[in-house]
Design a protein that fits this description.
Elements: H1 3-19, H2 23-26, H3 33-48, H4 53-60, H5 64-80, H6 82-102, H7 107-115, H8 124-132
Helix pairs in contact: 1-3, 1-6, 3-5, 3-6, 4-5, 5-6, 7-8
Length: 138
Amino acid sequence: MSKYTRVLASVLEVVSAEADVPVSKIMSRCSEAETVDARWLCVKLLNDEGYYPGRIAELMSITPRYVQYILTEFDDRIFLNKVMRINYANAAKKDANYWRNNHLTDCCLSCTFAARSDIAPQCNTYINYVRNKSYFFP
């Protein structure tokens, strides 16, 4: 299993548990609101991990343009959807805990990992992360 597949599996597992949507539905073309929200959370978490839209599209079996659309519109959607905002906050915490517990701090993930954990609160990346993610606290 490649690193990309492991990361996708962990993100899908976290989002599936948090949003209460099966992984098979998240990866399908289902257009129910809960499923679409879960898919958006997966794309955003993968982007937070440092993956480019092309790689995310390949992993999620969607078009790169749709990934760009999700990333562009994510803040507006999460602002208007309280349940999605709560799910994203909880999933981001659980995802950060997954990396901390499994010691998967590869060089491409280390900056994101440090920004989403208590490892380096004095780091500029962490400070920028906290400053930009104020919608966690409605």
